Amino acid sequence: MAISSKVYGKSQYAIGIKQKNATAFETAGATDTAYQLLPVINVSAPVLNLVESGEIRSNNAGMIETDFDQFRTRKGGFVTLDFECPAERAGLSRLLANVLQDHAESGSYIHTIEASSSNALSRPDLSSSASASSAGIPSLFDIGLYGPASGEDKIITSAVLQSLTMNFDMTDGRLLLNGTFYSGFASSTGFKVGQTLSANSGEPTLMSSSPTQIESYFDTKQFDVNGSATDAIITAVSFTFENNVARVGRDANGDAEAYAFGVPSINITGEISFMYDGNFNDGANNVLQDFLDGDSATLTLQQGDGTVSTAGEMNITAEVYSTAVNYDLNADTGAIITIPFKVVQPTSSGAPSGTAFKFEFMDGISNSSW
Q1: In the chain, N or C: fewer CB atoms in 10 Å?
Q2: Do 303 and 362 touch, CB atoms closer than 8 A?
Q3: How many CB atoms lie within 10 A of CB 67?
Q4: Helices in the chain by DSSP H: which ranges?
Q5: Which of 263, 281, 40 has its CA nearest to residue 145?
Q6: Helix (H, G, I), strand (E, B) or coil at 81
Q7: 14, 78, 324 from 181: Cα distances, Å
Q8: pLDDT, tens only, 201-254
């Protein structure tokens, strides 16, 4: 057969996601679903993690495994998909709600995702017996992977974000997201190849008719030092959310019967960099001493006036426990302190009290059903 001269570029591929009700956990993703565009920077291919083995067996006169010594099955496997994209107003809270499986919405629409003593994160029922989703929780996504031609699309069924990183990149100027989707459906009915996604003329729809990227800036940026909220000049800040989701069981097709979530815990980590200055230093406002004393600190970040009453306004509150204090004394813009941290639940007299992590964002779009 002669070679083909046709070459494809990344712009000919796309990724679309669509919310599904938790009661449809075992229902395969459909070709006629109106998947919504995930505006990825680079398109990744799904990774199939299948059950397989191969070994030298008896009655083999040679020293090389034979073809019939090999074993592979899609039953019991899982699928992952990595992505990186700029955060858009219409999609950010949907992704964060999915990775933490928590969400409430109000107003027109204000989204709140919270881990606190008054709203402790709970493990969702992600299984075939799940109750109907409320405010979009439990949250599941079907994923459509659009190829360059008809019959070259793929579908991932009942995916959940396994991890998500929010990186407020001051250099790029945007909030950038990266993460990994996880699906326990690797069978021929759960992970479908050679498909033709037909809705919307074979293209994913936009989450919003006027997509707006989220910029990396904060009107309020405070970090505790010596137990007091102190204004900081931030050069970088990021959060990573990991939920340890894993498939459980094996149905007749070999697909997951449920997902284990947050076992043994959900981990929220991050890193913040700010200027070494009169507010943060090794003297009166000693960041290093707070680290040595094992003191946690409240991090407060706000886009807007803190009321979250206008589209695009955002509040983030996190109780952080530093795991190191690093200095860059040779930075071109002046000395910088970088603190990697993990988010912890504050306590009072040994009992949970206050907020570990709270995200509030107004985008004017409902997440309960889309």
Answers
A1: N
A2: no
A3: 6
A4: 89-100, 199-202, 287-293
A5: 40
A6: strand
A7: 15, 11, 30
A8: 899 999 988 899 999 999 999 999 999 999 999 999 999 999 999 999 999 999
